[in-house]
Specification:
This protein is α+β, with helices and mostly antiparallel strands. The chain contains 7 helices and 15 strands.
Length: 343
């Protein structure tokens, strides 16, 4: 499988994707590993010897197997700290780790709005993780794509050129071929892909504003992003317009439309917090005492526009607000004006 190939896209997606730490392949295909130690191993720790003899597994994983009793030395449970004397017979029983499922096809009902020979446009539901990572090694959009269209395994990142946070709903485009992947990545770099979002925020921001503030990893909380002035931060530009106002829990809320020029991690969430108007329901950047108002950040990618990789013609898709978001707006007393839809 070739989903980790290096391409032009890796530099662009460095904010969103970490490098794979270890190759993934089916444990079902792993037979017990039989080893015979030699005099050259004498005096070394067992875990160090195993790391040297079977380098396809990380030392930390080997240590986990030793601690769990899956490594036998002369018929007895091994001890990673024990010094070997040579001539021992070692049996290693490889065990599946959660990340082994990261690049396995999984059948799921993908909400596909459009598909052709080059691209797939998906209306991602809230709760679906886009790409495998710690804590979410399976059940991701990538797993579903590998099942839906197996040849996509030969495209970097299984065709994923941008992503949405787990609890953000809405539109994503996926490349089915290497040529389409390269074209879409270049469009993202050139900032010609149009991405429009609807968000419900606390407060009443100005009718229209552009937030131009660089974003980088929070210096003290590695889970969060933040507006920073350091050289490590990357340019980020968000344009927003206020569409309507309402009230939740006796506090003012506003529905806004956001257009992105850049695609930094958590960009809208960070920019709106920095402007003093965090998203309703946002567990990282919102108001902690109001976290139960909504079960996720109120953010939906409602419009996506791009030049089709096959013919260069402009295409555009829209996705209506999901039911939970509509119900939230109804609670806030916000309704569409007749003849003036939000999307």
């Amino acid at each position: 499988m070739n989903v980790n190939n290096k391409t032009i896209g890796d530099a662009l997606l460095s904010d969103d994707y970490g490098e794979a730490e270890e190759s993934s392949f089916s444990v079902a295909e792993r037979e017990p590993i039989l080893l015979r130690l030699t005099a050259a191993d004498c005096g070394d720790r067992l875990d160090k010897v195993l790391a040297r003899m079977i380098p396809q597994f990380s030392r930390s994983r080997l240590q986990q197997w030793i601690d769990a009793g899956h490594v036998m030395v002369d018929g007895k449970t091994g001890n990673g700290k024990r010094l070997v004397i040579g001539d021992e017979e070692v049996v290693v029983l490889p065990q599946e780790a959660p990340e082994d499922a990261a690049y396995k096809p999984e059948q799921m009902n993908l909400p596909i709005l459009h598909e052709d020979d080059a691209i797939i446009v998906i209306n991602k539901p809230a709760g679906l993780v886009v790409h495998p990572a710690a804590g979410n090694w399976s059940g991701t959009l990538l797993n579903g794509l590998l099942h839906h269209f197996p040849p996509i395994a030969s495209v970097p990142r299984a065709g994923i050129v941008h992503r949405l946070d787990k609890d953000t709903s809405g539109l994503m485009v996926v490349a089915k071929t290497l040529e389409a992947h390269t074209d879409l990545v270049r469009q993202l770099q050139a900032r010609t892909v149009k991405r429009e979002y609807l968000a419900l925020v606390w407060g009443a921001p100005s009718l229209q504003r552009t937030v131009n503030a660089p974003i980088g990893r929070h210096p003290r909380d590695r889970i969060r992003m933040a507006v920073l002035e350091s050289g490590a931060a990357k340019p980020a530009v968000t344009h927003y317009r206020r569409l309507a106002t309402g009230v939740l829990d006796r506090l003012a809320v506003s529905l806004i439309r956001c257009n992105l020029e850049t695609g930094r991690t958590h960009q809208i969430r960070v920019h709106m917090q920095s402007a003093g108007f965090p998203l309703v329901g946002d567990p990282l950047y919102g108001k902690p005492h109001l976290a139960t108002i909504f079960s996720r950040q109120a953010l939906h990618a409602c419009r996506l526009g791009l030049l089709h990789p096959s013919d260069g013609q402009p295409r555009e898709w829209t996705a209506p607000l999901p039911g939970d978001f509509v119900a939230l707006l109804e609670r806030a007393g916000i309704e569409e004006e007749a003849g003036v839809p939000w999307i």
